[in-house]
Amino acid sequence: MKNTIEEKIETIEEEIICLRDDLFQTIPFKRSQAEQWDAIPDVDYDAWEKEVEQKLLHKENVLRGYLNLCK
């Protein structure tokens, strides 16, 4: 069972890294590109950012729960 929890923790940590990359790199970059080229974005960047923030918060809470199980 410990292996399964460790694997889940590792998977969640990887997902958190991807979400943080989206939140702090991908979204700001794509938003600035759309603004720079005066394009009408086909993406609602504010909604995308909010969705990623919610997913990140959820994953961080799940990770805390698993880490508490390991104590």
Assembly type of the shown chains?
single chain
* Helical proportion, percent range: over 70%
Measured by DSSP, the beta-strand proportion falls in under 5%
Contiguous uncertain segments of 5+ residues: none
Q: Between the first and last Cα atoms, what is the distance in angstroms?
A: 14 Å
What's the β-strand tally?
0
Compute the average pLDDT: 90
Question: Your description of this structure?
Answer:
This protein is mostly helical. The chain has two helices and no strands. Helix 1 packs antiparallel against helix 2. The mean pLDDT is 90.
Which terms summarize this structure?
71 residues, mainly alpha, 2 helices, 85% helix, elongated
Summary of the model, kept short:
By secondary structure, the protein is mostly helical. The chain has two helices and no strands.
Task: Show the helix and strand layout.
Elements lengths: L1 H35 L8 H25 L2
